[in-house]
Structures are given as C-alpha cells and as structure tokens.
Amino acid sequence: MPLGDEGRLAVLYEHPEWFEPLFTELDRRSVRYEKLLAHEHRFDPANRVCPYPLVINRMSPSAYTRGHTRGIFYTLEYLAYLQEIGANVVNGHDAYVYEISKARQIGLLRHLDLSHPRTRVINHPSQAAAAAEALRFPVLVKPNIGGSGAKIARFDTPEALRAAASAGTLDLGVDHTALVQEYLPAEGNSIIRVEMLGGELLYAIRLQLTPGEFNLCPADYCEPLPSRERVDSETGAEGISTSGTLVEAYSPPADVVEQVRDITTAAQMDLGGVEYLIDDQDGKIVFYDINVLSNFVADAPNVIGFDPFSVFVDYLLDRASGPANAKA
C-alpha cells in the first residue's frame, strides 16, 4: 500500500548491506521512503515537527568496527530529539539505550528476575582480574557497546586474564566500559534467538556455536561459506567458519516466549531479538543478550519458511498509517 502525500517513511541505518532486503520489499510495494545514513545525518532542534510519518531506527552498535563510531552517539541524540517532539519511531530512544549498553541489558534481566550469567561491570582493564575473582572461569570480557560479537574475548584461567590486562590487550570498546561475565556451556553447543515484532512472536532459530567465534548475527550467519573467512583466535591461521550451515527454525516453549515478551516490552522494543541458552550444567534457561537492532536470518524462506521482511513492512505500514505521533 503506497503512502500518500503526507510523507515518506525514513530508515535510519548505517550498515551498507544488512537492510537491502528491506529496501527491496519497500520498492516492490511502491512505498515511498528515505534512507538516512546515521553518520551523514544532521537535524535542527528548533524544528518541532517530524517530516516523516514514521522513522525506523536500524542503527547498529557495531558501526564503530566500520569507522562510524560517531553515528552511534549521534543516533542517541537524534532519537532523544524525536521523542521530545512526539515523532512516531520504531525502536526509539528508550529502546536504543539498551542496544548500546550490555550493562543495562543485564540490569533489565535482573529487574525482571530472569536468569542471566553472573556479571561484573568495569571501566578499566586493570579492574578485570579483581572483578572476576567471584566468578567461575571461563569468563568473557565483553565491550559494553558491542554488536556482531566484536572484541569479545574469552579467558579460561585467572592467570590468562591477568596477563592480558597487564599486556594491554584488553579492549573495553568505545565507551571504555565492559562486562566481565561467566561463560556458560550451552546444551547441544547451541543458542536460541527469539524474534519479536509488535509484542508477538515472529520466529525463532537455533544457532550452532563455532569455537572461537562470537558473531552470531543472523544476517551474517547463513552467508555462503566462502564469504566467511576468519582468523583462528588461537592459531592465527586463516580458515572458513562452518557456522554457515548450522542454523534451523525452532519452536521455543510458550513460557519462554512470554518471558521474551516481557523483556521486549520492558525495553520498549517494537522489534527485537533475545538470545538465550540452556546451561549444560543444570539444564536451566539463561538469557544473555538483547538485540534491538534485529537482523533477520539470511535465506529466511528456506530456514524459517517465510520472508520476515514482508511481515515487517506490513507492520511498518500499519504504524505509519495510524494516528499521528501515535508512538515515540
């Protein structure tokens, strides 16, 4: 359904490839839209009327790995402005603050009384060893602002963690804040990602884990193997990840879907993915990651049986055609 003369949709984004399927679906339906590259965008705070019936926030926290760090923090300010003027935004300011803070994600899970890995938050590498003293090894050091598994490091012993901190090889990320977190063995060496849209289950997938890899972005996960060259974290040898074939549709239990709904509602997420694992030590479900920037699984029709971008565009058109400024 094309939009009328009232305006076009706006898609705020940064990654050059992830959202081509969205743009293709919008084009197929003759929906008018404007691409807003976050790292090239600007706004006038004195303008108190949003020119778009709907702004779709698709800004990735992993932008700093592509030289666009400034876009992350700029987006926070732009979304705050849009919220202030009552604009209609998908995954607006209050959701985005969870996207760019793994510490806030853990705090939210704790607030909801949901199981999560034991975690300490630090602001300097020298604090890492002391923070890990009460934790069970292995531990992970995760930058607070992450995305696509960037800069996550695993340490199997306290000695290895102290050595890395002393050598200056711990990278806490662009806000100099990081999580020191217990690494839990996942049952079946796999994790589950549950995608929600508008408070309802869209789909879920099971992802097999690959040793030494932390990039579980579903948009990358099903790419053809030759495009997924990597460097082995232990040997330094170049190789090919096998994870490209290890993803499948999954039906999570109803109580888990309800818990994920609680998470996305509390985080004010219109669209998002929540990841959890089943702890191989005790069989308990443990939530560990909240993704406001929800990248749909690649090759979706073959993996989950339908195209989620089509459903997403249906949702966007409903939101755009609703009462003005219906949701910030």
- CATH homology-level superfamily of the largest domain: ATP-grasp fold, B domain
Largest sheet: 5 strands, antiparallel
Rg of Cα set: 20 Å
The total number of structural domains is 3
Strand content: 15-25%
**N- and C-termini, Cα separation:** 23 Å
Q: What would the average pLDDT be, to the nearest integer? A: 88
- Helices and strands: which structural class? alpha+beta
Low-confidence stretches: 1-5, 221-245, 324-328
The CATH topology of the largest domain, please? D-amino Acid Aminotransferase, Chain A, domain 1
Instruction: Tell me what the CATH architecture of the largest domain is.
Output: 2-Layer Sandwich
Helix count equals 10
Number of strands: 15
Q: State the helicity in percent bands.
A: 25-40%
Strand order of the largest sheet: 13-10-9-14-15
Q: Using the alpha-carbon principal axes, give the shape.
A: globular
Report the order of strands and helices.
Answer: EHEEHEHHEHEEHEEEHEEEHEEHH
Q: Could you describe the 3D structure shown?
A:
- This protein has 3 domains: 9-99 and 309-321, 3-Layer(aba) Sandwich (Rossmann fold); 119-182, Dna Ligase, domain 1 (2-Layer Sandwich), CATH 3.30.1490.20; 186-305, D-amino Acid Aminotransferase, Chain A, domain 1 (2-Layer Sandwich), CATH 3.30.470.20.
- The relative contact order is 0.15.
- α2 (69-84) links the parallel β3 and β4.
- The strands form 4 sheets. It has a 5-stranded antiparallel sheet with strand order 13-10-9-14-15. A 4-stranded parallel sheet has the order 2-1-3-4, covered by helices on one side.
- α1 (20-28) crosses α10 and α2 (69-84) runs antiparallel to α3 (93-99).
- It is of the alpha+beta class.
- The model is unreliable at 1-5, 221-245 and 324-328 (pLDDT under 50).
- The protein contains 10 helices and 15 strands.
